[in-house]
Amino acid sequence: VKVKIPFGNKYLDAVFSVPEKKPTYGVVLTHGAGGDMNFPHLVSLAACLASHGVLCLRFTCKGLNVAYRTKAFKAVVEYLKLSDDYKLSGVFLAGRSMGSRAAASVVRQLSQGDDGDDGFIQGLVCLSYPLHRPKLQSKLRDEDLLLVRRPVLFVSGSADEMCEKQLLEGVVSKMKAPKKIHWIDKANHGMAVKGRTADDVMEEINAQVFSWLRENVQLQHK
User: Fold this and answer.
1) Which InterPro entries match (predicted)?
2) Which sign, positive or negative, has the C-alpha torsion 36, 86, 110, 52?
3) How many CA atoms lie within 13 A of 147 on its CB side?
4) In this predicted model, what pLDDT tens digit does every residue of 63-90 receive, in sequence order?
5) Other C-beta atoms within 10 Å of 125: how many?
6) The three-state (H, E, C) secondary structure of 134-192, written as one string
7) pLDDT tens, 100-136?
């Protein structure tokens, strides 16, 4: 279902992947610095989640500024929260690369209570989180991650040139939130792995994301 989400005086293009049964939870998903919501990994993940009963709303925001992308993400979350069509108990925010930085920023802002945290945001999924620029490991983009209080899942390639394995593990060890890292063996930032098809890698990512979502939804309702 295609929708246009008001954002300032513009609109963001977005698509709902809707499960057959009425969903209780949703995932808001966005792309990296290049591309848009039709990036194959996002389309594949959205279809996987919807087939397992999780609503997925993915959107395009072309700005290359993280603050701008964060504002757009917040607008989409608000839109979903107030939607009459889908009454959700909660959502997980997910993004790829730069989109995951924006997602982390939104989760941090909302969990610090600047905007009143009512528990609608359940957690954060970071696909290929760009922890640093290529070859610039001294400047880590970890400030939002260290302040997030909701559960976080990282899915990263072990050969990601923007997220050195030991550095991410170091940041994660300092995080106060419940967290998990799933390494895609030998994958680069774009999740390409020599000798494996893109579909094969996407299946691994999708399975990890779904099983983590399921665990975290169950944990909160025990």
Assistant:
1) AB_hydrolase_fold, KANL3/Tex30_Abhydrolase, NSL3/Tex30
2) negative
3) 17
4) 778 899 999 999 999 999 888 888 898 9
5) 27
6) CCECCCCCCHHHHHCCCCEEEEEECCCCCCCHHHHHHHHHHCCCCEEEEEECCCCCCCC
7) 999 999 998 876 655 545 678 999 999 999 999 998 8
Q: Which residues are 136's β-sheet partners?
A: 133
Of 71, 72, 152, 144, give the one whose Cα is nearest residue 108: 144
Helical residues (DSSP H) of the chain, grouped into ranges: 40-51, 66-81, 98-111, 143-147, 165-174, 198-220
Go through the domains of the chain in sequence order and give each one's CATH number. 2-220 (3.40.50.1820)
Cα 7 from Cα 9, distance rounded (Å): 6
> Across the strands, what pairs with 181?
154
**Cα 18-24-25 angle, rounded to 5 deg:** 75
**Threshold 0.85, pTM exceeds:** yes
